[in-house]
TrEMBL record:
One protein family per Pfam: HAD
Name listed for the protein in its UniProt record: HAD-IB family phosphatase
UniProt KW keywords: Hydrolase, Magnesium, Metal-binding
Gene3D superfamilies from the UniProt entry: HAD superfamily/HAD-like, SG protein - dephosphorylation function
PANTHER family per UniProt: PHOSPHATASE RV3661-RELATED, PHOSPHOSERINE PHOSPHATASE
Lineage summary: Bacteria, Pseudomonadati, Pseudomonadota, Gammaproteobacteria, Aeromonadales
Length: 226
């Protein structure tokens, strides 16, 4: 008998905005980057690459972390907590929260899988009651001795095909051999995982994703902030 698994993208799906882009803006507004104009221009360049499906996630993580690793990691964690509470929480989508709460009441596992950094995604997922072990995101190395983030990815980055790899690792670790995957996403970058899932829902889809959803008869929906 198959095991239902609910899998959610984070940005523009469970939340109405993009946690990574908002975090970059937050860093600038709070004086946490040394050259705000250059930082935002480069961040826009990376976002354009992401929208085009050609982003190299290693380059993006390296740039972002290098831009803020003059701040001790312990201090960044405090700033991240405040950021998620004040910026991300108001972007939570009511419809996604309702699905998660209903699924959890029925003992259905819920996962968040995102190409954003784990230090963001784990905090955002916690707002929806998702345990950290069910958050599959881009893990960034931490130098605990020197209290700083490192511009290095740990393990398989959960981006494009990597999302499938990470999901398979999670399923294997939880001894789920016959999953029935319900996947919710806005992004064309998630097409590999869309084709892996049994049920796909295009949530707040980009134009490219709208076209794919129409081609494959995937339901489309527009979720709203709580």
């Amino acid at each position: 008998m198959s095991q239902e698994v609910q899998v959610f993208d984070l940005d523009s799906t469970l939340i109405t905005g993009d946690s990574s882009r908002s975090w970059c803006q937050y860093l600038v507004e709070h004086g946490l980057v040394t050259d705000p104009k250059l930082f935002l221009a480069k961040e826009q360049e990376f976002d354009d690459q992401y929208q085009a499906g050609i982003l190299k996630v290693e380059d993006y993580v390296g740039f972002i972390v290098s831009s803020m690793n003059h701040t001790p990691y312990s201090k960044l964690c405090q700033i991240l907590d405040t950021y998620v509470e004040t910026v991300v929480k108001p972007m939570m989508c009511r419809e996604g929260l309702e699905i998660i709460e209903r699924s959890q009441r029925n003992q259905v596992p819920c996962l968040v899988i995102s190409a954003s950094a784990a230090y963001l995604v784990k905090r955002a997922a916690a707002l929806f009651g998702i345990p950290q072990e069910n958050v599959l995101a881009v893990e960034v190395a931490v130098d605990e001795q020197n209290d700083k983030l490192l511009p290095q990815i740990v393990g398989v980055p959960s981006f494009q095909q990597g999302k499938i790899t990470r999901l398979h690792m999670w399923l294997e670790g939880h001894q789920i051999t016959d999953p029935e995957i319900y996947f919710y996403t806005d992004s064309i970058n998630d097409l590999p995982l869309c084709h892996e899932a049994q049920h796909v829902f295009a949530i707040n889809p980009s134009k490219a994703m709208q076209q794919e959803a129409a081609r494959h008869n995937w339901p489309q929906a527009f979720w709203h902030a709580i």
